[in-house]
């Protein structure tokens, strides 16, 4: 299992935004931002408020890419792995609180309004591979991998 390093956590919490990449059953990509998330040691959770393209893609294809970018330093990370919808009530409640505590202050009120209007699902992302997005890094293989690398070659 890939551990989310302290550098990645710090960047995500500083930037207050992650980009979630999915694809539909035809392979057509979709990328959308998330500012309501919580980073644990080996998973990332986020609120899924709208349940449109990304959510529909999760249901059909649980492979997801999550990126964080520091625009000032021109660096970042991309993680690839699987998502699942959190359906355990106790886990849902605990994670909902942790995400709420981490909401960006400038969007907090709007996110709470959207949740009130639309409800939420909570998505759990478990990374299997980690890539640097630093333009000076020329890696061909990810920094960290789970033992089953065949799935990542697709």
What does it look like?
The structure is a single chain. The chain is of the alpha+beta class and 154 residues long. The chain has helices spanning 6-15, 53-60, 89-101, 108-118, and strands at residues 18-23, 29-34, 37-39, 44-48, 63-70, 75-85, 121-132, 144-145. A hairpin with a 4-residue loop joins strand 3 (37-39) and strand 4 (44-48). The protein is globular, with a radius of gyration of 15 Å. It starts with 5 loop residues before the first helix and ends in a 9-residue tail after the last strand. The relative contact order is 0.21.
What fraction strand?
25-35%
Overall average residue pLDDT: 88
For the record, give the distance between the C-alpha atoms at the N and C termini, rounded to a whole number: 19 Å
Tell how many strands the DSSP assignment holds: 8
Order of helices and strands: HEEEEHEEHHEE
User: What share of the residues lie within helices?
Assistant: 25-40%
Q: Which term fits the overall shape?
A: globular
Detail the poorly predicted runs.
145-149
Query: Number of helical segments?
Result: 4
Largest sheet: 8 strands, antiparallel
- Structural class, judged by helices and strands? alpha+beta
